[in-house]
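Before a colleague's protein record goes any further, I have to sign it off. Alongside the sequence sits a line of tokens, each denoting a local backbone shape. I want your independent view on whether this chain really folds as the tokens say. Where you disagree with what is written, explain briefly why. This is what I was given:
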Amino acid sequence: MSRIVISFISAIFLTSVLFVFHTSEANNTPLEPPQNINPHAFAVIELFTSLSCSSCPKAEKHLGRIIKMARQKALPVYPIAFHVDYWNHLDWIDKFSNEAYSERQQQYARAFDKKNIYTPQMVINGQFEFVGSDLSLCEEKIFEYLTKTPVQNIKIEASYTHIGDSIKVAYRLNKNNPGLLNIALIEKYREIKIDSG
């Protein structure tokens, strides 16, 4: 059965999600999750990446490690990869890239008051950005967010129906909130053959 991951994050912008990761063991020893995880906390990790980016494989490998750790430790951690399209001027096209993902990163740049965008970039909970290959900082910030007390708790109930090539989602919130609700359809694994580059 398909799985819908629903997350609410203030100041994140609406988009559809393609999630791609490479599963492999990281060389660095992972940090141990803290014991005092807040039952209402979560961490959404967004990686802006590209198959044309030579420094991105390390960040993608780390994303795979985060997925494995979250699964093993039953942590409320939700990693998502956005393949941007601005590297596509090179010899070949990243088939996972999308203009909407590049625009999402541009929106973050404006929110963080950054003049330039780059890959690999990670953003946690729409609030903290850093170079995606910084493995220790990533885990440190994830665990920091997992031990924080949320500013407010929002209960979301949702259901969905699959109709042809579309998925219809119905949801209900327990309170009104000025933020945006993001609904992400996650593709857990996908491979392509790379002939050049």
The first helix runs from residue 56 to 73.
